[in-house]
Amino acid sequence: MKVAIIGAGSLGQSIAKGLVSSSTLTSLYLTKRDLSSIKGFEDNQKVFLTSDNALAIKNAEVIIFAVQPRHLEAILTDYKSVLQKSQVLISVITGFSISRIEAIVGQDKFIIRAMPNTAASVGQSMTCISSNNKGKEKVELAKTIFNSMGRSMEIPEEQLQAATVICASGIAFWMRLIRATTQGAIQLGFEAHEAHELAMQTCFGAATLLKESGKHPEEEIDRVTTPSGCTIEGLNEMEHQGLSSSLIKGITASFEKINQIKTT
Ligand SMILES: NC(=O)C1=CN([C@@H]2O[C@H](COP(=O)(O)OP(=O)(O)OC[C@H]3O[C@@H](n4cnc5c(N)ncnc54)[C@H](OP(=O)(O)O)[C@@H]3O)[C@@H](O)[C@H]2O)C=CC1
Ligand SMILES: O=C(O)[C@@H]1CCC=N1
Fold first, then answer.
1. Quick one: three-class SS letters along 29-98?
2. Which atom of ligand 1 is nearest to the CA of 74?
3. What residues bind NADPH, as annotated (predicted)?
């Protein structure tokens, strides 16, 4: 599979890192205007760096657009004449609808909207996927691509903004929780590096327990909370201070904002 990533910034590079370890990849073109920050990819013989988007597009079967929302319209307009009907166009861009992409490049193109996250770089992305009518034929291909860097789920396009908040912004939300736990552990006497490791591995353990057991979080919580013990004391104080409420409010604020992000 020949892939191009147009706009190899933060997310584009995460996807690239996930892709280079995929056995199905034959070549990967990465584009951006200033190539200095992605020179490290040159060590991989399958990867080509260029500022020439047309060159990258011509050399790809799958084109992943990962520029900022306000840049996509101009890029699609500039390069639509180079696009082939057989190519699969994947946009990971927030808030730019499939119908707007179709209006520029045509309904006869395979169009996928995907929302991965930066954990793609370590093979642990959660990627949500939608498509246009024509693109339905290529959803399995898109899932194969994103499954190679984590897990994927096909969802209706109307839910893609919500999925962005939960899965893409969600990486930052979880990181902040890990950071806060680390600060708590330092206050309890651990060195910073020890506190960080304790917080990370405990977070990883909690997620793995739920994934492997298929249980509801409260069932696993019940297994930890000894009556009159320290866990329930801590949990109840966190809830008195609004832990769940603050998370839910943060998620809904993020969702309100995502619907206002300018894509022009
Ligand atoms: N970061 C994240 O975790 C997530 C981001 N997204 C979405 O992904 C998109 C990218 O986000 P992010 O990676 O954070 O943004 P970045 O700004 O890090 O990346 C965008 C890249 O596009 C490049 N670029 C700009 N214009 C062009 C052009 N004409 N041709 C080629 N490359 C160009 C820029 O590099 P240069 O200036 O050198 O050209 C830049 O590195 C956004 O639409 C965002 O909404 C979605 C989910 C998660
Ligand atoms: O913060 C943002 O707007 C983008 C979309 C999700 C992650 N980064």
1. EEECCCHHHHHHHHHCCCEEEECCHHHHHHCCCEEEECCCHHHHHHHHHHHHHHCCCCCEEEECCCCCCH
2. 29
3. 53
Mean pLDDT of 240-251: 98
**Ligand nearest the Cα atom of residue 117:** 1
Q: In CATH, which superfamily holds the domain spanning 164-258?
A: ProC C-terminal domain-like (1.10.3730.10)
CA of 64 to the centre of ligand 1 (A): 11
The CATH architecture one would assign to domain 2-155 is 3-Layer(aba) Sandwich (3.40)
Q: Residue 51 pLDDT > 80, yes or no?
A: yes
- Give the residue, by CA position, lying nearest to ligand 2 atom 1: 169
Q: What is the arithmetic mean of pLDDT over 104-114?
A: 97
Ligand 1 in reach of 38 Cβ (< 6 A): no
- The residue type found at 33 is R
pLDDT of amino acid 140: 97
